[in-house]
Write a structure and sequence with these properties.
The structure holds two protein chains of two kinds.
Chain A (H helix, E strand, L loop, with lengths): L2 E2 L10 H7 L1 H4 L10 H20 L7 E4 L2 H16 L5 E5 L4 H13 L2 E5 L9 H7 L4 E5 L13 H10 L3 E5 L18 E5 L10 E5 L25 H11 L4 H21 L3 E3 L11 E6 L4 H10 L2 E2 L1 E2 L12 H5 L4 H5 L1 E5 L6 H20 L6
Parallel strand pairs in A: 1-11, 3-4, 3-5, 5-6, 6-7
Antiparallel strand pairs in A: 2-8, 7-8, 9-10, 10-13, 12-13
Helix pairs in contact in A: 1-8, 3-8, 4-5, 9-13, 10-13
Chain B lengths: L6 H8 L12 E7 L4 E10 L2 E10 L2 H14 L4 H6 L2 H7 L8 H21 L2
Antiparallel strand pairs in B: 1-2, 2-3
Classes of the chains: A alpha/beta, B alpha+beta.
């Protein structure tokens, strides 16, 4: 049995998605900018896909811009608005638990003259709304807060954040790569000005995403060239990818989502019950992403757990320093206030609609033995 | 795994040799902290200037566990002078290589071994 529990990293492409994409590689392969029939076929498919994505977040088609994925959309939102507002306004507010593509972009912008406030979060990863209010100044042009956290599954109260930003007249961007399709996104109800979404986290192909930009917002393009996407994002549209993205956005049913929550809780409860000295990181219940489980196994290092799990054909991620190429630990777990030991002993299991109860039973059978063995090997247990 | 580990590393990681503690060890060495993500612990028994027995415990990644497991095998039954001169390069070679970013694991293992021998020598002055 092979158990893939790293769906927050990326997902398997849904068969229906792949099937929908295939003709666009070899039959309807036209360039949407071409004037001839092959071009209009592609253009039609592109616009149909745009409509589907727009509807999924209650936006207009004209407000959806396709990109190469989450990283590009996040880079574009931050840099594009900075270039539009600097030097009149130079202040960005974000959090300490953003994805690296937000944090590294902010660090880069600081060198360009931006001032960035990195909001703290509480022990479950939630932003303090009062802190946010206090941080907004006359120089603030953007608040960027992740919707569903990729490491610990925290779903921020984006609607309340939206209200604050609207009252204070600052733009709100959210990185919704992890939450998209799993948590309702309604750009009107939630007062969202820019939203990053992508395809490969929702059983669509890699290399495609979108940025929702509310009508009327001025933003400088990141890509210059042939003037695609209404001059805002040059580069020949990835038609099969965009079509697959749109198809993928329609696939997750309510029933499947509920099943994911049941499986998530089965794994959480199973681990906490069967294995002593374990701790769930992030919130529980409806405030947690349906696919995310993050647990610290005290006194053992995360990569070693990951390695033993891999030996049993179970694939997971760890927030431990050892696993990364930089040997630095997780900034998200650190922001929660976890000790070095708790940070370095964490494992993220991320499920998908394809994860079965049988697979979870298999994990719950193998994991206690692995933890027991590694604890016998731990110098922290005398 | 995210890193390309040799078969020898995987073997020593998944089935480590000489793990655990000794009864009344003659020398003990420990290096590392939870912050850096690795802690290595070695205990030795010495007889006639030779390492008669050695056990280890390691909190760390595959490379850290494999390095300490390998070190115990390389110095078991060997004179202290030999063990003191063992280098990280020799350990890494015996493991059929370590990823560059994990080389510090074998260095830490060597430091732990030297600390254990030093501890023995100080106790037996």
């Amino acid at each position: 049995m092979k158990v893939y529990l790293d769906n927050a990293a990326t997902t398997k492409v849904d068969d229906k998605v792949l099937k929908a994409m295939l003709p666009y590689f070899t039959e309807e392969y036209g360039n949407a900018s071409s004037m001839h029939m092959k071009g209009s076929e592609a253009k039609n498919s592109l616009e149909k896909s745009r409509k589907i994505i727009a509807n999924s977040i209650n936006a207009k088609s004209s407000e959806i811009y396709f990109t190469s994925g989450g990283t590009e959309s996040n880079n574009w939102a931050l840099k594009g608005l900075f270039w539009q507002n600097f030097p009149k306004k130079n202040h960005i507010i974000t959090t300490k638990i953003e994805h690296d593509c937000i944090l590294k972009t902010c660090e880069w912008l600081e060198k360009e003259g931006a001032k960035v406030t990195y909001l703290d979060v509480n022990s479950e990863g939630f932003v303090d709304l009062e802190e946010l209010k206090k941080a907004i100044t006359e120089k603030t042009f953007l608040v960027s807060i992740i919707h569903g956290n990729n490491e610990i599954g925290t779903i921020e109260d984006i609607e309340s954040i939206g209200k604050i930003c609207q009252e204070k007249k600052v733009l709100l961007h959210t990185d919704a790569c992890q939450s998209y399709t799993k948590v309702p996104i309604d750009v009107k109800k939630q007062n969202l000005d820019l939203v990053t979404i992508n395809s490969h986290k929702i059983h669509g192909p890699k290399g495609v995403g979108a940025l929702y930009i509310k009508e009327g917002i001025k933003i400088t393009p990141l890509m210059h060239g042939g003037g695609h996407e209404k001059l805002m994002r040059s580069g020949t549209e990835n038609i099969p990818g965009i079509l697959g993205f749109a198809k993928a956005s329609e696939q997750l049913s309510k029933k499947e989502l509920n099943k994911m929550k049941i499986i998530r809780d089965k794994l959480i409860e199973g681990i906490l019950e069967k294995i002593p000295n374990t701790k769930l990181n992030g919130p529980t219940g409806e405030k947690r992403l349906a696919n995310n489980i993050n647990i610290s196994f005290m006194n053992i290092e995360g990569e070693s757990i990951g390695g033993y799990l891999e030996n049993e054909n179970i694939f997971v991620s760890t927030g431990s320093a050892c696993m990364s190429n930089t040997l630095s630990g997780s900034h998200v777990l650190k922001a929660l206030g976890l000790s070095d030991l708790e940070q370095n002993s964490s494992i993220r299991f991320s499920i998908s609609k394809y994860t079965t109860e049988k697979e979870i039973d298999y994990v719950l059978k193998k994991l206690p033995k692995i933890i027991e063995k590694l604890r016998r090997l731990s110098p922290l247990i005398k | 795994m995210a890193f390309e580990y040799s078969e020898k590393v995987m073997e020593n990681f998944l089935k480590p040799k000489n793990m655990g503690n000794l009864q009344n060890p003659d020398g003990v060495g420990e290096v590392g902290s939870p912050a850096c993500g690795d802690i290595m612990h070695l205990e030795i028994k010495v007889k006639d200037n030779k390492i008669e027995d050695i056990k280890f415990k390691t909190f760390g990644c595959a490379a850290a566990i494999a390095s300490t497991s390998m070190i115990t095998q390389m110095v078991m039954g060997k004179p202290l002078e030999y063990a003191e001169k063992l280098t990280m390069k020799e350990v890494a070679e015996e493991l059929k290589g370590l990823p560059q970013i994990k080389m510090h694991c074998s260095t830490m293992g060597i430091q732990t071994l030297r600390k254990a021998i030093k501890d023995y020598r100080e106790k037996n002055k």
